[in-house]
Amino acid sequence: MSEEVPSSFKVSDRRLFNPDGTLRTDVEQDTSRVESGSTRSTGEPSVSPQNASTPADQPTPPREDPLFSDFVLELATNAMMMLGLIEHPQYGRLPPDIEGGRHYIDVLAMLLEKTKGNLAPAEQRQLQETVASLRMQFVAITKRMAAQVRKDA
User: Fold this and answer.
1) What is the pLDDT of residue 125?
2) For residue 17, what pLDDT band results from cuts at 50, 70 and 90?
3) How far is C-alpha 101 from the chain's CA centre?
4) Residue-averaged pLDDT of the chain
5) How far apart are CA 71 and CA 130, in angstroms?
6) Whole-angstrom Cα distance, residue 117 to residue 123?
7) What is the 3-class SS of 20-70, one letter each residue?
8) How far is the C-alpha of 92 from the C-alpha of 81, rounded, in Å?
9) CA angle at residue 101 from 123 to 97, to 5 degrees?
10) Rounded CA gap, 137 and 83, in Å?
11) What average pLDDT does range 39-57 have in this prediction?
12) Burial group, residue 103, by CB count within 10 angstroms (0-12, 13-18, 19+)
């Protein structure tokens, strides 16, 4: 039962120096290959000044993140609750809080401004449409409240 099973991997020592600090002789051959720029240790071609402007080096467009969409939806939901457009899950329909609604709309507008150029197209569109829709609803609610105050006076 003392049979040795051949291993499926090989361990190679890639250190450049011996324990006493001298350069290892068997590594010198390997370093010349690496210095020629053929490949990196990851297997990817190295970037030299000649090929630095290839399309692969261009920044990739941002990817859509579901957490961002959820964050926008959460802020929009809070704004709608503050404006009295939807019911609070625990307390039901609350009277409109204009300043609270304005605050959430301003936060979304700030987020739109600060993230320009850093969002995926779908995220940018969602944020723009959310801010525009909330602003329109805000204007309609404040006009309705102003008309009711004039009517009561």
Assistant:
1) 95
2) confident
3) 26
4) 80
5) 12
6) 11
7) CCCECHHHHHHHHHHHCCCCCCCCCCCCCHHHCCCHHHCCCCCCCCHHHHH
8) 10
9) 160
10) 8
11) 51
12) middle
